[in-house]
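Listing S7. Sequence submitted for prediction.
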Amino acid sequence: MRKYFAIATTIMATIAGFAQPVTTPRTPSPAASVSQSIGISVVTVTYSRPSVKGRDIWGKLVPYGWNKQGFGNGNSAPWRAGANENTTIRFTHPAKVEGQSVPAGEYGLFFVVNADNTGEIILSKDHQSWGSFFYEPEHDQLRAKIQAHENAFTEMLTYDFMNNTKNSSELVLNWEKKQLPVKIEFAVDDIVMANAVEQLKNTAGFTPQGFISAANYSLQNKTHLEQGLKWIDQAIAINRNFAALNIKSNLLRAMNNTAEADKLMSEAIAIANEVELNQYGYQLLAAGQTEKAIEMLALNAKRFPQSANCFDSLGEAYATKGDKKNAIANFKKSLSMNPAPNVKANSEKFLKDLNVL
């Protein structure tokens, strides 16, 4: 019996040596993360969410100013901006935080909050620490002033993003009745263009579409136009089509080379198919060039006289101009050609608006 007991004891001791606990929910401050895309860049905050639970938060649970915590290395430290491990913030590309440059990477995120609602944000290169007990000021990547605001009550500490623009977003920490805002910015156009350079060295550079999409971004955002022109020339060298010639023409126009732009657009129009010329007509309408749009859509109807959609589109252009007579004539022409359901519905809608149906 003692033999079996000894074996069992040995087995249990061995198991204990390798024992790992099962995964259970973290309480009372559950883990969370929130991300925001700005252009093609992403900001991610990872944190734990304490609750108010009726406690006095600011100036009590979260002391005002810098504080010695009675544990760790003894340095005065900022607030960990959450619970448990470091709250961290990660940038996929170089960013600006409150106007200061920050390299891409992951950082410990800390705040200092004062009684008068002034404060600081601190990004530390020590992002794997527990709280701020071992905070080392010499490892700071950034310190910037912030201004806290009074806010609607929030029970669980929450990070969010608001006031988003093309190049920026405002990271906000909401807890109890305070909000701590931090402006984050990326040089979106520069990042997109640099990324395109690298992508076009890979499979995206094997077809004209990669160069067309990169050049079109340059055109639409009026950025790096010389580079955009080089890319569209590479696309044209692979396949000289309407889409590429149209983009090159508009790039040249944006660079004040109107004569060459007009010449190239004439060539593009000459080789455009029905769909391309129709889309170009709508682009002109959207740009307020109604007469030019009518010219292009009339040309499309002449080239493709069996297309009900061509006459429907031309009717829209005349309706936009306010030429009721020609609009009605073209919508009726479209309906006489047994159009597709969507084209029929569009023509009938316009005729009803024109008090014909």
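Caption to Listing S7: primary sequence and predicted structure tokens for the chain studied. The mean pLDDT is 92. The chain has two domains: 31-186, 189-353.
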